[in-house]
Amino acid sequence: MTRDHHQRVIWTIGGGKGGSGKSFITTNIGICLSKLGARVILIDADLGGANLHTFLGILPPGPSLSDFIKKRVSHLKDVLIHTGVPNLQLLTGAQDLLNAADAKSAQKRKLLRSIKSLESDYILVDLGGGNALSVLDFFLMSDGGILVVTPEPTSIENTYRFLKSAFYRRLRQAVSSFSAKSLIDEAMDRKNEAGIRTPYELLREVRRINEEDALKMVEEAATFHPNLILNQVRSKKDIEIGFSIRSACQKYFGIQLHYLGYIVYDQDVGNSIRKRRPLVLENYRSKAAQCVSEIASRLANSHRMPSGN
Amino acid sequence: MKRIEEQTHYEILEVSPDADLKEIQRAYDHARETFHADSLAIYSLFSEEEMRKIQAAIEEAYRVLMDEALRKSYNQSHSHLIERSSREKQAEKSVKSSEIKSSLSFTDLSIEVGEITYRGRSLKQIRERLGIDLKAISAETKINIKTLELIEEEDLEHLPAMVYLKGFLKAYARALNLDAQKLIDGYFQLFKEKGKK
After folding, report:
1. How many structural domains does chain B have?
2. Structural contact between residues A41 and A122, judged by C-beta atoms closer than 8 angstroms
3. Domain residues for B58?
4. Cβ of A294 and B31 within 8 Å?
5. A72-121 per-position pLDDT tens digit
6. Is A88 helix (H, G, I), strand (E, B) or coil?
7. Tell me: the pLDDT tens digits for B86-112?
8. Looking at B78, B103, B128, which one is the last position of a domain?
9. Chain A residue numbers touching B58 (CB-CB < 8 A)
10. What b/e readout covers B41-60, taking b as 16+ CB neighbours within 10 angstroms?
11. Cα–Cα 20 to 30 A to A95, which of A61, A272, B37, B73?
12. ipTM value of the model?
């Protein structure tokens, strides 16, 4: 591996709802990657409750991102926390910026640039279950967005809602005319007056007013490849839901979802969280840990492929 | 980004234009399970009307693609559309099969009985639709024809006990590229029903 030449890869973990396992997955994938010899930084940006430190079994952190934003420290790397796991560092407090109503997109882009300049091979951002615009932006600005879903209607419904918001946000950024942008805004509202219910209907309406923007939308759909992890899987039938979700997204959004893998339901997960010891360190042989490590190695391989995100 | 009405039969079933009958059968089973009214994966996404449209498109695609003559004339009349999507799909397909393989590799999970299970008779139907001779299955699986016939006829009295039968069922299902577990589940049900009598 030639560290000097390859770029840092940023993965954002978001969508779904609280309790689907995003923080657990972020922490344990991070550890797996660090065990493969890569330098990894975890970023806690969960608006609902930032507690990656608890998953790692370390005390509530002292320095945080706000120390950097408020210029109490001059380098972002000065607020990184050592986790006790070799090669693995933690950055907390990103949720404050995402939460701030006045956070300008320029400010967020600047933060992303500072994050990208950190000395690391992989950066994993736990976005939590939120749906706020700044969360969507972060999800879209990364090299790869990862959705975590459990095989339950509530989780699937929330994931589709998040995916739709993120997709429309991406389309909105791509089109240039004001009329297309406002049409997309309108389509975000389920009961919109234009009667736009699906992405295709949106595309049809945009095509009516601006052919060029419609083409841009088609291009965006073709290059949008979010990733999916199915968590708390209990049967083979559950595993297949991942493939079905992919087919459903293809039919509904016209996008190609990438099914990264699944994690089986495993009592050892709950035990490890209660002990505040990451599963892949505490019980590497458990089924869930094996699933996580398989996903981590797939992530490690994916960005080397030319077709990867 | 294409509406259902604009997608080719191949796109509807998510198969490449050169997919063989086994692949089409498998894709059809997957599509039917995905776009079933009780399917979890479509929850909150589609309206009833959209679902009916998709289901009809899936059935139509299956009907045409499984019939050699119909498929041929469809390919001719839609050649401009199929040509273009052919290359894109090819790339996707190679990703897809490796994905399925590696992600289903190591876990040995307990099984819930799915919506669709196969039994002997449905196996026979699928085999005949695929135009595969029982001899070919026998050669591939190294199971003698008599046993394969018993499996298709669901002749439980002359078939070996489930413990031994399982291996045969697995091999046969694999030869047709079907989910072996669904056949085993179907046979388990058969044994259960018979036990009740």
Report:
1. 2
2. yes
3. 4-103
4. no
5. 888 888 899 999 999 999 998 777 666 665 566 677 777 778 888 888 99
6. strand
7. 555 555 544 444 444 333 333 333 333
8. B103
9. none
10. bbbebbeeebbebbeebbee
11. A272
12. 0.84
